[in-house]
């Protein structure tokens, strides 16, 4: 179920890229424009400020890197043009096998989704997703991912595995960038004991998901404290973090 070395080499370029909705508030709610950033601008922002972006940003960036490395890939997703949209990438190896590459959910590794491959199994697997075992189930034109948590809870996600046409994908990306939810969100992979865990900042709380379970780690009272913790975990620019988190407070106050 593991990807080929060539696919993994490209994927590993993104090991320290968080997924977050902070950049959209910093960039898209300003006068700089409402369109989806192109990859060259994302690279500039990453170099200058340490920021990455949401699942659309990460999917576009990953597609660009796959193209540079000579690997065929295309975007997939579900619930596009809604507030629940999520997108990822499918990469194809030299033998035509397809691998789901989901930076938006901070997977540890791409995973094989072709049931016809001799390497496919529908067993629960560790090492692909932080803090959970995953199971890949195939439907007609969709792939269902089951996430088995240490406490026995099972969640799922279903991807339509047909390629999304790029113009439509970009329109959905712009919808997502302009759809601002009132709660800030950032997810990243962090070292924990002998594993890579999943840390999430959501609605002013910090959570760590590990093979031992889910733990609430922090609940700071001051924005300055969140700025320090998030910057420590991500190397994001502190001035941008402060501006964005203060903007989110304003958004939340208007929503209440």
Number of helices: 7
Total E-strand runs: 13
Largest sheet: 5 strands, antiparallel
Computed Rg: 18 Å
Structural class: alpha+beta
User: What is the helix fraction of residues, given as a range?
Assistant: 25-40%
Main CATH class:
Alpha Beta
Strand order of the largest sheet: 1-10-11-12-13
Fraction in beta strands: 25-35%
Number of domains: 1
Account of the protein in words:
The protein has 256 residues and is of the alpha+beta class. The protein has a single domain, classed as Arylamine N-acetyltransferase fold (2-Layer Sandwich). It is built from seven helices and 13 strands. The strands form three sheets. The protein has a five-stranded antiparallel sheet with strand order 1-10-11-12-13. The protein starts with a helix and ends with a helix. The relative contact order is 0.16. The model has no long low-confidence stretch (mean pLDDT 94).
Map the helices and strands.
Layout: H1 5-11, E1 19-20, H2 22-28, H3 39-49, H4 55-68, E2 72-78, E3 86-92, E4 98-101, E5 111-112, E6 125-129, E7 132-138, E8 142-148, E9 154-160, H5 166-178, E10 185-192, E11 195-202, E12 205-210, E13 213-218, H6 223-234, H7 238-255
Antiparallel strand pairs: 1-10, 2-3, 3-4, 4-5, 6-7, 7-8, 8-9, 10-11, 11-12, 12-13
Helix pairs in contact: 2-7, 6-7
